[in-house]
Amino acid sequence: MDSGTHEAAQQILKRLDRSLQQCRECPIGEHATQAVAGAGPVGAKLMIVGEQPGNEEDLQGRPFVGPAGRLLDRALAELRWPRERIFVTNAVKHFKFELRGKRRMHKTPAQRETAACRHWLDDEIGAVSPAALIALGATATRSLLGTKASVMRDRGHWFDGPRGIPVLVTLHPAAILRAERDGEAAYRDWVADLSEADRYGQADDD
Q: Does the pLDDT value for residue 186 go beyond 90?
């Protein structure tokens, strides 16, 4: 990507972030603190797509900074994938939750809400132009691949995705955190799934 194209793509992402803050195409935006756009470099080889911001992401305005993000960081460190070279984002840009007392508890986005956010994700993909995508969980998989892939059936496998970009399907790190038994084994299996994208996640040799 030449310098002019790179600068233009950065400007697209900045405008997208500003526009996202005004988005009310589905009801989630009325209640969230803010929209959370993706983060990472233009031209990243690898884009990781999760479900939606969580409570901490909603408050901080950055993706994958809560418990699931910390588990993702652990996996990236083990794989030797520098996070600063990866673009991380979510299929849905606002935090959907329900109140339980004073706590805001995660609630899975509906299909229509995911569909309403799809064009924002497509704009990010177009600006970043990654070589590969990783779909973390069912919402991201559905957003990127429709019904042609199932997380539990197809985890660790590649599919043809949007703009001809290959998509690797696996679990969301939140699912690993919820594993009641053999949590470490579940984590190791998940890292093994992620490692299928090793050629895209590794830093280039200097």
A: yes
Q: What is the set of domains in the chain, with CATH numbers?
A: 3-201 (3.40.470.10)
8 Å CB contact between 54 and 36? no
- Contacts with 57 (C-beta within 8 Å, 6 or more apart), sequence order: 36, 63, 64, 65, 66, 69, 95
pTM for the structure as a whole: 0.95
Pairing of strands 97-100, 87-90: unpaired
Token output for 203: 């830093």
Q: How many CA atoms lie within 13 A of 184 on its CB side?
A: 0
The 10 Å CB-count burial string (b at 16+, else e) for 137-174 is: bbbbbbbbbeeebebeebbeeebebeeeeebbbbbbbb
pLDDT digits over 64-78, tens only? 999 999 999 999 999
Summary mean pLDDT of the chain: 95
Residues 6+ apart with CB under 8 A from 167: 132, 133, 134, 135, 141, 144, 145, 149, 158, 159, 160, 161
8 A C-beta contact, residue 187 and residue 176: yes
Angle between helices 111-128 and 137-145 (to 10 degrees): 70
Determine the 3-state secondary structure of 69 from DSSP: helix
Q: For residue 80, how far is the Cα from the chain centroid?
A: 19
Question: Could you tell me which of 126, 107, 115 has the C-alpha nearest to residue 91?
Answer: 115
